[in-house]
Amino acid sequence: MTSISPPESLRCINADSREPAGYRAALGDTRAALLHTDPPYCLLTRRRKGGDLRDTRAHKKIDQNPIVRFETVRDYRAFSEAWLSSATAHLTPDAPLIIWTNLLGKEPILTAARGLGYPHLRGEYVWGKRTTDKNANEQTLRVYEVALVIARTPAPPLAPGDLPTVWAVVGGYDDEGEAKRWGGHPHHKPFSVLEPLVRTYSRPGDTVLDPFAGSGSMPSAALRLGRRPACLEIEPEWAERVTHRLRETAREEAQRASAR
Ligand SMILES: C[S@@+](CC[C@H](N)C(=O)[O-])C[C@H]1O[C@@H](n2cnc3c(N)ncnc32)[C@H](O)[C@@H]1O
C-alpha cells in the first residue's frame, strides 16, 4: 500500500496529553476520525498502611520511565478525565474511542468517557497474550489487557451481508519480532493485535490520534493501513524514536508499493 503521508511530514509531538498544545501541534485544525491509544495503566503505588513504600526495589524498577504509577484509583480517574477531555476536543463527532487498559483501569476510563458524552461501551476487545507456558497439548494465554471500544451512540445493527465485529485476538508480545528494533518498549503492541481495530473503526485516509505513543505501535499500524497518524508522547526520547519509526515505516511501505 502506498503511504499517504510523505515520510518527512511524519512526527510524534513531544507533549503532555493532558494539555491542549500538543494536540494543536499534531493536528492543526484537523479532527481525528478515531482515537486509538494505550495510556499508562492503572498501576497503583505499593504502600504499607503507614504510607511507606512496600517494596522499594520493585517500585524503583517499575517507576523507571515510561511506566507511571498512581497513588489511588481516584488519581487515575482524574488523570483519565484530564487527557480524555483534551483529546476528545480534537475528534469528529462520530469518532469512536479505543482505549487499551488493564482490568483495573476499565471503570475509571469508562466513567471519564461517560462524563464527556461517550456513554456507550460497544464492547471489549480482548487480547489473549500467548505465554511461554505450554506443553505438547496445551497453550496458556494471559488476559490482562483489553481495548475498550466506546462511542457517543450504540453500535448500528449489522446487516446480513456485513462481516462480524472481531472481539478477541491471540498473539504474543512480539509475534512479528520487531519490538527491539523500535526500542523494546515494555508496552509494545504487535501489528496483528492492532490491525482488526484499525480496519474496523477507521477508513483509509482517516486521521487516527494516539496521545500516548510509547514506541509508536499504534501510529505505525495506522500508517501501514493507509491512515494518517497523529501522536503525542511525553518522554522526549520515545517521541524521537516514534518520529524515526514512522518515517522508516513510510519509506518501507513506499518501497513495497513500488515493488508490486
Ligand atoms: C502504555 S505506554 C504506550 C505503549 C505503546 N502503545 C507502544 O506500543 O509502545 C504509555 C506511554 O504514555 C506515555 N505517557 C505517560 N504519561 C503521558 C502524558 N501525560 N502525556 C503523553 N504521554 C504520556 C509514557 O511515557 C508511555 O510511553
Automatic annotation (TrEMBL):
GO BP annotation list: methylation
Sorted UniProt keywords: Methyltransferase, Transferase
Stretches assigned to the DNA methylase N-4/N-6 domain: 34-240
EC number: 2.1.1.-
GO molecular function: DNA binding; N-methyltransferase activity
Entries under InterPro entries matching the protein: DNA_methylase_N4/N6, RM_Methyltransferase, SAM-dependent_MTases_sf
Record family assignment: Belongs to the N(4)/N(6)-methyltransferase family.
Official protein name in the record: Methyltransferase
Source organism of this protein record: Myxococcus xanthus (strain DK1622)
The organism's taxonomic lineage, starting at the top: Bacteria, Pseudomonadati, Myxococcota, Myxococcia, Myxococcales
